[in-house]
Amino acid sequence: MQSPPVVQALDLNYEFVSNFNSHDNHIRILQGLNLTIVAGEQVAIVGSSGSGKSTLLSLLAGLDVPTSGSVRIQSQAFSNLDEDGRAAMRAKSMGFVFQSFQLLPSLTALENVMLPLQLKSHPDAKALSLEALNKVGLSNRVQHYPKQLSGGEQQRVAIARAFATQPAILFADEPTGNLDNATGQLIIDLLFKMNAEAGTTLVLVTHDVHLANRCQRQLKLENGVLNELATA
User: Fold this and answer.
1) How far apart are CA 204 and CA 97, in angstroms?
2) Pick from 207, 180, 178, 175: which is nearest to 191 by CA?
3) 4: pLDDT strictly greater than 90
4) Among 54, 42, 57, 43, which residue's Cα sits nearest to residue 9?
5) Which of 8, 13, 60 has the alpha carbon at shortest distance from 32?
6) Bridge partner residues of 14 (DSSP)
């Protein structure tokens, strides 16, 4: 029996208006895009710089809304919700890992991981956060601030934060983009290890061939359309 769809894009279109030389130019980024990702899948979205990969991720995660078409999350209408409704579903079902880590500099590693749990008034926020930090090998760095951590350590905090909420879906946008090759490989290994343990659906945008090859499916975004790539 096939797993149920967790992320769906239906006839997704996205364009923006660029004002150049006093003329409004409609620039189309995505056109008629369709995508179905089932529970537990690991999907990499690849493509050249400027192809719209991060835009697509933002639409799937409800950080932006399509010009037309729709996004469904766990079979529920998502892109049609207002901003508060999308935020509530993100808090309930999604985790995020970004290229730039997105840690709050005034909070310790532990406080950064605890924050999304505290926003949901989770009674075990501290215990879950400590457990997540231990899983990423940072149990001895919980009281350190981001500026006291290396780039790799900051990304490990971000991974702990993403998994601490036990999300159904993890969105990752160039998670190794700001790291050297050796550190990036460690982060890749850690990300896939924790993803396998949690059974999370993983959707990631990357230009890293090694990272993309770790996924079950690779989709290339080109001229606003997704095409499935053959995998070994």
Assistant:
1) 9
2) 175
3) no
4) 57
5) 13
6) 30
How many whole angstroms separate alpha carbon 144 and alpha carbon 163? Answer: 20
Question: What is the per-residue pLDDT across 68-117, written as a single tens digit (0 to 9) for each?
Answer: 999 999 999 999 999 999 999 999 999 999 999 999 999 999 999 999 99
Q: CB under 8 Å to 12, separation ≥6 — which residues? A: 30, 32, 33, 34, 35, 56, 59, 66, 68, 69, 70, 71
Measure the N-to-C terminal CA separation of the chain; round to a whole number of Å. 24
Confidence at residue 19, expressed as pLDDT on a 0 to 100 scale: 64
Nearest 5°: the CA angle 34, 96, 16 is 50
Q: What are phi and psi of 101, to 5 degrees?
A: 75, -45
Closest CA to 59 of 98, 33, 27: 33
- CA nearest to 133, candidates 105, 152, 114: 114
**At residue 64, does pLDDT exceed 70?**
yes
The answer to whether the CB of 156 falls within 8 A of the CB of 136 is yes
Residue pair 71/8 in contact (Cβ under 8 Å)? The answer is yes
Closest CA to 177 of 17, 33, 49, 34: 49
Find tokens 């090759």 and name the residue: 181
pTM over 0.85: yes
